[in-house]
Amino acid sequence: MEFQKTLYQTVQEYGLMAKKSLGQNxxxxxxxxxxxxSLSLEKQALSDLSQHNVLEVGxxxxxxxxxxxxxxxxxxxxxxxxxxxxxxxxxxKTQTNxxxxxxxxxxxxFDIQSLKAQNLQIFSNLPYNISVPLxxxxxxxxxxxSAMTLMFQKEVADRIMAPIKTKDYxxxxxxxxxxxxxxxxxxxxxxxxxxxxxxxxxxxxxxPLKNHPTNEDIQKVExxxxxxxxxxRKMIRQSLxxxxxxxxxxxxxxxxxxxxxxxxxxxxxxxxxxxL
Length: 276
Ligand code: SAM
Description:
Rossmann fold, 11 helices, 7-stranded mixed beta sheet, binds S-adenosylmethionine, alpha/beta, Helicase, Ruva Protein, domain 3, 2 domains
């Protein structure tokens, strides 16, 4: 795919100042954004995106957008809250004649079901201030999602991937790991971004597990883990004591009530939740 203007020319022309309130840390090196998309497609054994409906949240000046366009998406939806970038995306659409559907709106209020996609690929260098709420929202809509390639602050990525019995293991690890296969594709130092954030970032590839738990069961796990990790240092017989039959449930499942929240695996949380 040929672009009339380079990313650098676009940024120069529009004189873009990053807005901290919108979590704007841009990726302006096309080699970096190309690598993110290639790593993701490689892991998914895909040569391009020609069979996929793609959604990019927060395209900004369009580094990742250009990398996605090179992979020939069947349909390409983009949601951007900052009007300045909506105009840049309209220009890119005119330049490339690509099947881009540009939405000027807030991704937190966007229902991905409205895209009526079966095999949605979500890509985003996420605005860090809303990365976890966006992930949680998409995890409730996995029936339309084929994969998510998402940039998080490394500390958040560590929590998502944390194994049992580690300090980072918590609610977000339990819920995400019950629903998705998660792989870390790349960790990037702050210098890759403009302006440079204070901390490193990691790109994760999240793919829905086959036969993953229902939303109903996940809601129960959410309540259960809120109680358990709310008293992280306590034994669960203490932190879960508001659940009247917790002793019987744990006995039935052979889960000692002397364990603490971080010593219980995602699948054990699910087993308990199903009996609530
Ligand atoms: N994709 C670009 C890149 O990699 O250079 C920009 C990434 S920047 C970290 C986050 C982007 O998300 C910004 O363009 C910002 O305006 C946009 N954004 C922030 N909050 C948003 C929201 N609630 N809905 C949609 N876009 C949002």
